Each structure stands twice: as C-alpha cells, then as structure tokens.
Amino acid sequence: MSSVAQRSAAIPAYAKVEKQYKFSLVRRWFDFVWRTAVFSGFVTAVSTFSITWKGSTLLFGLLGGIFAFPFTLYPILAARRAYITAPSKSVAKASPISLFTSSVTASRSVWYLATHAIFAAGFALVYTQIISWTNDSVDFGILRPTPRHPLHLNERVAFLLWGNVCFFTLLGLVDIVKSRTTGQWPKKRTPLFVAAQKGLDEGLGKLLELIPIFGLSSWSFTIFPPAFSILYWQLRRRLWYFAAKWGLSSFVINWARSSKTNLSVGLMAYLYALILASLVLFRLPTAIMNAYITQPLSFANIKSPLTPDRYLLEALKSKDPYLLHFTLMELLRVSYDPTRRSKIFNEPAASPNARTVLVLEIWQELLLHFGAAYKTLATRNGAVVTRGAPLPARPSGPDPRAIQVKQADVFRPVVKQKSTIGLALQNVLDGPVKPTPPAVINAEQAVIAAESKALKQVEGVAKEAVKRLEGYERGKVVVKETQGIIESIFTWSGQQWARKSVRTSVPEPMVVEWILDIFATLAVASADEDQFGYVQSVMPATLEAIVRYRSALLSLESELLARARTIGRGGEPAATEVRRLIGETFGACDRAVLRIGERFGKSLSAFKFPPGVAGQLGEICRPLETVEEE
What we know:
It is a multi-pass membrane protein. It holds the Pfam family Ndc1_Nup. One of its GO terms (biological process) is nuclear pore organization. It comes from Papiliotrema laurentii (Cryptococcus laurentii). One of its GO terms (molecular function) is protein-macromolecule adaptor activity. This protein is mainly alpha-helical. It has three domains: about 15-295, no CATH class; about 310-440 and about 485-630, no CATH class; about 445-480. Helices cover about 70% and strands about 0% of the residues. It has 22 helices and no strands. It has helices at about 5-10, 15-50, 55-70, 75-85, 95-105, 105-135, 155-175, 190-210, 220-250, 265-295, 310-315, 320-335, 340-345, 360-380, 420-425, 445-470, 475-505, 510-530, 535-565, 570-600, 610-620, 620-630. Helix 2 packs antiparallel against helix 10 (about 265-295) and helix 18 (about 510-530) packs antiparallel against helix 19. The longest helix is centred in the first third of the chain and has 40 residues, at about 15-50. It is elongated and about 95 Å long. The protein starts with a helix and ends with a helix.
C-alpha cells in the first residue's frame, strides 16, 4: 500500500466530515464577505456623492470602499464571528464595578473595541480623502502645510476622525455591556435568504430609530456630535499643546493655537454625515451576518461514500462544539421526517462484526454529548470537583468491560445483543439522584459582604443628603433621575451576573434542547416504526439521564438563587434572570419526558427505575394523570 493510501486510510471518517463542514461554512462566509465588500463600496460612493454632487465621486467611492473593506469593516465582522464560533468563558462578578471592568478588560473585549476604532478611523480617512480629491473647496486633505512645518496635519480631518472613533468605541462598549455580541441560533429551520432578510429588516429598524419620530434611541446619534464638539473645543488647546510638547510639534503645533484653527461650526454637519454613513455601513452587515454563521447547512449537495444517515453518525463524533450545532439541527430535521426516520430504525449494522445497529450508534453518540453537558453542569464547568467517573472515551474496538443496558420486553421482543452504549451513560448514571453540595463561600462573597457592611454605615448620611435635596423642586427631579440611573445599573449588574453564572454551567443550552427533542421524537416514533425495539431497550436509561440532568439544573438554580440574595440591590433582577434562563432548559427536559409519557402511557411502569428517579418521573408526568382523570 502506498504512503498516500496509508495516510488516507488513517484519517478517521469524522475528520473527513469535519473538513467538508468547514469547507461549506468557509464558502458561505466568503459569499457573505464579498457581498459586504460590494455594499461597502456602494455606501461609500453614495455618502461621498451626497457631499460633492460630482460624478467622479461615485467611481472613487465605489473603488475606495471595496479596497478599504479588509482594513475597515472586516475586522469587526471577524471579531463578532469569533464570539459565535468560539464563545468566550468569563467568571461572574457580583459587584457592578467588578463586573463592568472584567467584561471590558477581557482580551477579546479589548480587541473588539479596537476593531471598532480601526473601522471608524479607516472609514473616516477614506470618506474625507475621496471628498478632498473631488472637491478642493471642502479642505479635507490630510496635510495642511506651513512654511515652517511642511508635514503639518489638517485639524478638520482629525476632528472628524476622532469624533467617529469615539462614537464607535462607545457603540462597541455598549455591545459588550449589553451582551449583543453573542449569536442567536435558530429556533426553527428557515432558508438562509429568509433569515438574512429578517436580519436586514431588523438592521433597517435600528437605523430608523436614529430618526426622532421613529424611536427613542435617537438621542445618542442626535446628541453625540454637539457634545463631542463642545468637549473638543474645551480640551483642544491643552491636549494638543501637550502633544506638541512631547515631540509632535511639527504635525500639530497650530492645533494648540486658537488663532490658527480652521475649525468651524459647520464642521459638525460633516460629522453627522460621517457618523450616519458609518452606521449604515456597520449596522446592516452585522445584522445579516448571524444568518450566515448559524443557519443550517444544506446536506443535499454534500458528496460522500457514506449514506446520509451514516454521514450524520460520523458528524456526531466531531469534537468541535460549533460544528456540532449543524449536525444536531440536521438530525432534528431528520427525526421529524418519517421516511428518513424509518431508514434509521431499520438500517442494519454497518458490518457483520458490528456490535450495534445504526439507531443505537446514533443514540450512543447523543448520550455522549448529553453526558458531557451533564458533567459540565454537575461540576460547574470545573469549578466543583466531584467524585463522578470521568467522561469515557469512545471505544475504538470491542471493550471487554462493556455492559449491556437493561432491556424491558414491553411492546415486542427485543433482539438481545451486546452494546457499548452503557459506557455513554456512565457519566450520567453515576449514583443516586442527590443535590449538589452548596458551594463554599469564596473570597468574592466575603468582599461583597464587606461592601454591604460599609454601605450600611454611610446609609444614614446618604438619606440625610437626599432629604435635603428633596426640599427643593429641582432637587426632587435630580434625586428621581439619579435613583432611576442607579437602579438601572444594579438591574444590569444582576442580570449580567445571572447570565454569566448560568452560562458557565450550561454553556450550550440549544445543544441540550436539540438532543432532548431528538430523544423524544425518536422515542415516540419507535412505538410504531422500531420493528425490533432497539430504542425501547435504552429508553429507561435515557429517561434516567434526563431526570438526573433535570435534578442538576434544580441544584444549580437553588445555588444561584441563594447567592443572588447576597449581592445586594441587584439580587432580585439576578434571581428573575436565573429562573428564566434555567427554566428554558428545565422546560425542555419536562417536555421530552412528557412526550414520551404521553405516547407510552402506563406502559412505562414496566420499566424499573431507582426510587429517586421514579419519583421525579411521576412528578413530571402528573399533568398526564390529570388529563386522563378528566
């Protein structure tokens, strides 16, 4: 056998599937990128033409926007894409100040802010220089030479550049603070162009909010240019004098002299136009890109020697969490397709020596991923050390330690066979159901307690000051507005703390919900379509795994609600957010069990469960008993 053939044979099938996935996703990404580059040229051409009203500006703007795209808008798109393909892990801080600083100073956040500054500065330079090339009267050249300083810079360009940079840096900061950088995975399958159109409509809606008659968020766009202009005028002399003193006098010396300035009030109108053009260029692509990153792949055009169902089985073995989303979305679609589903149930083993059939192989891979999610939840993503067995590696061959999952002859005779699926359950079914022990109070909670004690000591002084202010009419307004701002800060900090705390233990809620939906759909369909009862042989263990995951969610909720009571004024918003986030995954567990219970009814009593698991199953299925009585 040649070396090339040996290397080809050594590559596992799932690695080849991963390669095809990545190729399809990269092709889709570059399709989005070139469209955005053309859009960048169009926006640049139109925005500069609206200033000069000269035909040559359209050509310069189109070419300038396209060629500048890799250095202006693309870094922002790449940074936002990284947030979706490789979500960052951060530790939740209870203090508003600590939470803000930890969010902003993270390495990924710093780069995200830097990309906004790069985009704003780059587009401002392209915008001003195209206008300068086609209309000399506007005076937007980079240089404004003097006899003594031939390389002296133009302050008008610097004013526009810094104004745009400050605005978009603040915009990036708001995205980080409000967690707008995370992607939204689709709840239901929609064509790519439909999802992109929906994102475009949302982006246009955000642009309409800039106009006062359409929305209330226009204040940032309306107020920023005047506020920046006033602040710049107040600081320019001291700022540029300091810069000149430290060796930049040849470039900025005239900026520190009021008599030498070429700024005017009319320059504020150009700042408005520049920010508006930048927002159009920024908002629409970032609103659409989520569809190109998260929408399901088309498996119809993928060429592989494997059957479509075997292809999905190999794809499930991938260790890339991002690629796993696409496999689960396709498998969920297949589970609702009767034709494809029947093939999964009835396809025999891949070879005479295979230990399991296709449906059990798929089930095993799903249980492995579900077990990994359970381990992350039970150990709080490594924050709590448990005595549970580590997640078993996938066996490469027959394992003498493999145990057979208990089978129940409930509906029809079950084919007895050896199976390695028990290994996939080892991490989930380790010991009886019991709550996770409460976390030990750490240094962070001690600091919070000290802060609360210090606040109580000065509370009396603060109340006295508030009473004095409320004695005046304007003082009442100031106190009311200040209290509203402070309350919103604590609400934000509580909600952010809750999101970070929950996502530490449940980082991929959609993956868990999809797996549960697939389990329930295949289990319900197996009553009529699974001729040999393969799924029913693993149903008891699967139900037990779901119950244990549900129990771990309850434990996490109790732990976080207890901690929320110690974080002060943000505790109530934090508790509400914890209940909402955990409730979504908790509800998915209940829905999966209810669907199975509704289909099989009292026949489930033939299965044997540990007492704790049986009790929780009865609690979940209690609504079904009420319906039967009625």
